[in-house]
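Usage

Read records sequentially. Each one opens with the input sequence:
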Amino acid sequence: MIGRVIEIGSEGCQLERERGSMVVIKDGAEQGRIPLDDIGVLLCNARSITYSNSLLTELARRGVAVVLCGDNYLPAAWLWPVEGHHVQAMRMRFQLEAQKPLQKRLWQAVVREKVTRQKAALQTLQKLPAGSPVGADFDDMARRVRSGDPDNIEAQAARKYWPLLFGKKFRRERSGSGPNPLLNYGYTVLRAAVARAVVSAGLHPSLGMHHSNRGDSFCLVDDLMEPYRPIVDCAVARLVTEGHAEIKPETKRALAGILVMDMETDEGTTPLQTCIERTASSLARAYETGVAALTFPHRSQTALIPPEGDRDASLRPEGDRDEEVMSDAPASRTQGRRI
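and closes with the structure output:
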């Protein structure tokens, strides 16, 4: 079962563990509860949330990514389990001892996948007509990515990609306006999912293959999420087109729902969260074998955006409780609720 993305967005909530569930209490009254085994990611966006130590340790034991968000929906801190995989020590040793040539080839694969998927995203959104010379430019850039991307093809592709996606005046800035807050939120959901997958694969999130900012404790997570960013971009672009341009409970639900989107893979149709976990596992194998082979879902255009019916359902609140207190993405296409 794919874990749900749970967001706590209301001030004054108290999170406690009661038997096998997380209970949300506000003003002395229970607002909702969810089984701990159903939670994949816990996003905490409000400033005045209190937690019980028992709850946090149980979430860590289950490998749940607990993300504490600061301003503009950006992650400020994470709860990282001490032990994430039964052969964690061995895999981290392989990761630490990986040679530079292997790291560069892995980054080459990541950038090539990202550029190719950016083109697919533009085609899906009909912002890149069939036969367009710009499409050929993306193909050419993907082919020209060399080991370690010394020519910075990633940045070259971004300069073409963002104006096509959101218009010539758009600037991708973490603190910017327009669709930037939506992108921030979507990337936070994605980053949490990748962090969970990296730890579950027995890898250390701080030891990146390319990113090496000493102030970033999740360099590997930031590396591995790059090919999946266009999926968030697609979801945000579609929301903006449909008039959902602000951070609201319904847009948060829709963006959290990307983790259960069906993707086509060599092993059949698979939720995005599982695809991310397979990518992390393939990276662990690459470190062990020395072969720079990473597993990604197919670049199917239709897989980048959930079908209309599913997205409409995710934007529709249910029940009569305070929808700002706790929201969650569905665990599957047939299960979705709002607490």
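Summary fields computed downstream for this record:
- DSSP finds eleven helices and eleven strands in the chain.
- Confidence is low (pLDDT under 50) at residues 306-324, 330-339.
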